[in-house]
Design brief:
The chain is α+β, with helices and mostly antiparallel strands. The protein contains six helices and 13 strands. The strands form four sheets. Strands 1-3-4-9 form a four-stranded mixed sheet.
């Protein structure tokens, strides 16, 4: 198993009771069920559909971003930024001196290809707890994590495991092998956007933190209520690049220019130790680092963000054959060869858990993926609006 995988937990992965050791017991007693992303086995039969990936070094190089020349609209919605759109090179290449983890993280982001997107508005930050609370108060909406799982959706799962909850990063107290996600992901009874780490936690005093534990349908529901929508993957990447072309990071060529931290990522030894060299261990409030060239905050690190595209690792191969793809909306169907039975959408941006030891998805062109009914405590979203 590649160490570059993000180790994302998934609500719809194969649910089987786990034999717990005495050492595991205290840490897992609150969890009704343990769910792991990219599990070795999935519910139902496996498909043998191939995933064709681009050959490293075979794709074109980055070309300049050509932003649309028309000026910004006179009225910009509150809390949003105008993204001019235009033509750009989309995807990721191996940055200089990147290790194997970083290189593995670019394999489904090839080949580099030209894309055009129309101009649009984008939220300057991830949707915050305060904003999501306003939505819930106005609509009475109940998130996926707050609903009791249905037995028909999880055949074979013990009834005792079918409890409302969500997936929480739970660091071990010692170094562990990086090929066993059970070591740091737990399904926690009662975890939700209101209780990010479980029922004993809350979001008091955290109005300006990204809302987390949002499944894809939760994000869509909020966007519809707000008169917005979720960004396509192409829109997200154009916006994240902020007018730059071919840079490995949202802000430029160096991870820490002049020794300055530019995003909330993981420092220390993953997953057992976060030294908080960037100022905080775990998630932090939005907009604590400088914005990119389009005035957008946290387009790398802190919390992953949903996009509307289905995930396929071979999608860029098909897209590149179109020449300049105009306003691509993603493939018609999802497919993840590591979990063929799971419908996944693309995640972008990385999170506070990203590190060059394991997940280097703070690299701007790289891609994440998530099963649509799964939220975690490092997954959020932001919205866009058409002109």
């Amino acid at each position: 198993m590649s160490r570059s995988r993000t180790g994302r937990a998934t609500r719809k992965a194969h649910l089987l009771p786990r034999t717990r050791s005495r050492r595991d017991g205290p840490r897992l007693v609150a969890a009704a069920v343990l769910i792991i992303a990219m599990a070795a086995f999935v519910r139902g039969s496996r498909t043998t559909e191939p995933a064709v990936l681009a050959t490293p070094g075979a794709e074109p190089s980055f070309e300049a971003t050509v932003a649309n020349a028309s000026g910004a609209p006179s009225a910009i919605p509150d809390g949003m930024a105008w993204i001019p759109g235009g033509e750009f090179s989309m995807g990721a290449a191996d940055p200089p001196e990147m290790n194997e983890v970083g290189m593995n993280g670019t394999r489904d982001a090839r080949p580099i290809h030209r894309v055009y997107v129309d101009g649009f508005f984008m939220d300057k930050t991830d949707v915050t707890n305060a904003q999501f609370a306003s939505f819930v108060k106005a609509t009475g909406y109940v998130t996926v994590a707050e609903r009791t799982p249905r037995a028909e959706d999880f055949p074979g799962a013990p009834a005792a495991n079918l409890v409302a909850g969500s997936v929480v990063f739970t660091p071990p107290h010692h170094p562990v092998p990086l090929n066993d996600h059970f070591q740091w992901w737990n399904y926690v009874r009662g975890a939700s956007w209101r209780h990010p780490l479980g029922p004993s936690s809350d979001i008091r005093g955290k109005d300006d933190y990204p809302v987390v534990h949002v499944a894809y349908e939760d994000a869509e529901a909020y966007a519809k209520w707000a008169g917005k929508r979720l960004p396509t993957e192409a829109e997200w990447e154009f916006a994240a690049r902020g007018g730059l072309s071919g840079k490995p990071f949202v802000w430029g060529d160096e991870f820490r220019p002049g020794g300055k931290w530019m995003a909330n990522t993981h420092q220390g030894h993953f997953p057992d130790s976060d030294t908080a060299d960037d100022g905080v261990a775990g998630i932090m409030p939005v907009a604590r680092f400088a914005p990119n060239g389009y005035g957008l905050y946290d387009m790398a690190g802190n919390a992953w963000q949903w996009t509307s595209d289905w995930y396929r690792p071979d999608y860029y191969v098909a897209l590149s054959a179109q020449g300049v793809a105009r306003n691509p909306r993603g493939p018609d169907t999802p497919f993840d060869p590591s979990e063929p039975g799971q419908a996944k959408r693309v995640h972008r941006g990385g999170s506070f858990l990203c590190t060059d030891q394991y997940c280097s998805r703070y690299l701007v062109g790289t891609r994440g993926k998530g099963e649509v009914s799964t939220g975690t405590n490092h997954l959020s979203f932001r919205c866009v609006k058409d002109r």
